[in-house]
Amino acid sequence: MGTADGNNAPLWGGRFGSSPAEAFERLNASIPFDVRLAPHDVRGSIAHAKMLGEQGIVTEDEAVELVRGLEVVLGEVEAGEFSWTPADEDVHTAVERRLREVAGEVALKLHTGRSRNDQVALDLHLFVREAAEGLREGVFAAMRALVEVAETNRDVVLPGYTHLQRAQPILLGHHLLAHFWAFERDLRRLEAAREAADRSPLGAAALGGTPHPVDPALTAGELGMLPPVNSLDAVSDRDFVLDLLYACAVLGVHLSRMGEEWVLWTSAEFGFATLDDAYSSGSSIMPQKKNPDAYELMRGKTGRLIGDLNALLITLKGLPLGYSKDLQEDKEPIFDAVDAVMLMLAVLPEMLRTARFDNERMRLAAG
């Protein structure tokens, strides 16, 4: 459990007469999953430390020492050299513990004018902003691959389908670019999620601000964000997480629909296309098999994406304004969704480029 002054009391344990039960510590700990917020936590703390110095809440020298120490911690985090300990309750405790080891007692002043409520909210804002941008890059890469494959096969004809019955001939490029335009809408949803995350909650403290003369606009500007408007909303808001989860779920649906098509196209019954061996698997008992596992996983993982969105919606629906520990459950769904979509987007462009089409079979099927 994280400590405030080197004893066994947690940061929040001032009024408590005994340490938390071991079973409760395990339930309460978030360090197993929120470690990935560490770089965002440190960057937010650097901005906060600079503001504390600018406002005279700490001396200029103390602010310099805090920033210097935090930059050391950030370097360790980014290099994968940061050591997590069993005593770390959460990412904030771990960072502040290491900062104290690096910078000394001045580290105890870092938390001045800040609560873990606005701190963790900021970490999540920064994560969502970065993740949305990374996902956009992945979608752009898939869109470029679709255009390249459509251009390469510009004269290829295949059947268009309604009710999964042959309807009328269309160009393969026209079909592929239908997915391009679905991805274009995904880009807009991801941009909306990034924009929603681009507001700093720092300055809200626990829920009603702080008596220290903090400058939320200064901190937000240091992070390239807008300042908070309402302190209670700032620590309660998780809409930006829902926005990214929704964008991931819809993007997943689009990937799943594409996956279903390729599962059909590469089957013996259709025979329209063949996947490169690098993106296929075989059977341990039936050597003739060539399975489109990557596209099947795109279908399968989409169910998880929808579940991640649903899970956070259900968590949030009954919460009053202000921080509740339920909000600790906001991180694993978004981490899972972002990771799943990034895996799918990483494999898709080259899987499209290296596939081979049976032009004659498609033309005959088109009639």
Characterization of this structure:
The protein has 367 residues and is mainly alpha-helical. It has 2 domains: 22-112, Fumarase C, Chain B, domain 1 (Orthogonal Bundle); 118-207 and 229-366, Fumarase/aspartase (Central domain) (Fumarase C, Chain A, domain 2, Up-down Bundle), CATH 1.20.200. Helices cover 59% and strands 5% of the residues. It has 13 helices and 4 strands. It has helices at 22-28, 31-34, 38-54, 60-78, 91-103, 116-152, 172-196, 216-222, 231-236, 239-265, 293-317, 331-353, 359-366, and strands at 157-162, 165-171, 273-274, 356-357. The strands form 2 sheets. A two-stranded antiparallel ribbon has the order 1-2. A hairpin with a 2-residue loop joins strand 1 and strand 2. Helix 11 (293-317) runs antiparallel to helix 12.
How are the SSEs placed, and which strands pair?
Elements: H1 22-28, H2 31-34, H3 38-54, H4 60-78, H5 91-103, H6 116-152, E1 157-162, E2 165-171, H7 172-196, H8 216-222, H9 231-236, H10 239-265, E3 273-274, H11 293-317, H12 331-353, E4 356-357, H13 359-366
Helix pairs in contact: 3-4, 3-6, 3-8, 4-5, 6-7, 6-12, 7-10, 10-11, 10-12, 11-12
